[in-house]
Amino acid sequence: MRLIMLGPPGAGKGTQAALVSAAHGVPAISTGDIFRANIKNETPLGLQVKEITASGGYVPDEITNAIVRDRLAQEDAAHGFLLDGYPRTTGQVAALDEMLAEAGHALDAVVELTVDTDEVVGRLLARAVEQGRADDTEEVIRERMRLYAEETAPLAAVYRERGLLHRVDGMGSVEEVTGRIEQVLGRVRD
Ligand code: B4P
Predict the structure, then answer these.
(1) pTM confidence score
(2) Nearest to 113, CA basis, from 2, 1, 9, 33
(3) In which pathway does it act (predicted)?
(4) Which of 36, 92, 152, 177 has the smallest number of Cβ neighbours within 10 A?
């Protein structure tokens, strides 16, 4: 199973990716998590992307594509993966197409989680209290959402044209959303 999880900040991509990954035995690959781990460990990559992620901007495609290329080349991704937070730009879509073509693989589905703006802001502000993530302030959340609308939301149309897009209502409890995603995956496998 090769999946992409698409959706605005706070839609629940990370939460659902972890659950789907565990249920289907494929690694969940989150570019956001990779950047945060590098920032925490103060690696050269972490130092390079710290300011960008803290302000809600996108890390340049060359950096992000190289990281995903390395990650997809690892053994555990050979038979499937779930991408969370990648691709986010048309340049990343093109790079991923290239990586998949080189490996002789194809995507099975793109799941787009949809949520109300107010709900998203509420979720991320709640997470700010729990986890204190540098990019979960109201101002930065608005910037992340603006960038999502401008750069990432249009990717849904690209995947719709390819017949891969499945829109899933991301409102409600975590369990409800997981149930909807599993229904989609059941249809994809049939
Ligand atoms: P990400 O880590 O991907 O951040 P995000 O889009 O804001 O998603 P996040 O994982 O935080 O939210 P989720 O939907 O899981 O990226 C962080 C930064 O890294 C970016 O801003 C950018 O700077 C950089 N970056 C990452 N990938 C990049 C790329 N490809 N190109 C360029 N730059 C890149 O929401 C989770 C929250 O909602 C949690 O608090 C959770 O508990 C809560 N939640 C989930 N489901 C819920 C439910 N049903 N009900 C209530 N709460 C729920």
Answers:
(1) 0.94
(2) 9
(3) Purine metabolism; AMP biosynthesis via salvage pathway; AMP from ADP: step 1/1
(4) 36
pLDDT tens digits for 95-149? 999 999 999 999 999 999 999 988 999 999 999 999 988 899 999 999 999 999 9
Q: Which residues pair with 110 in a beta bridge?
A: 4, 165
Residue of 69, 133, 160, 167 with catalytic role: 133
In this prediction the ipTM stands at 0.91
Residue type present at position 20: V
Domain limits of the chain?
2-189
Neighbours of 18 (CB within 10 A): 15
Residue nearest to atom 52 of ligand 1 (CA): 123
CA gap 111, 160 in Å, rounded: 11
Give the closest residue (by CA) to ligand 1 atom 25: 32
Nearest 5°: the CA angle 10, 147, 11 is 15
Active site residue 40: no
- Single out the catalytic residue among 2, 71, 123, 144: 144
Q: What is the CATH number of domain 2-189?
A: 3.40.50.300
End-to-end CA separation in angstroms for the chain: 13
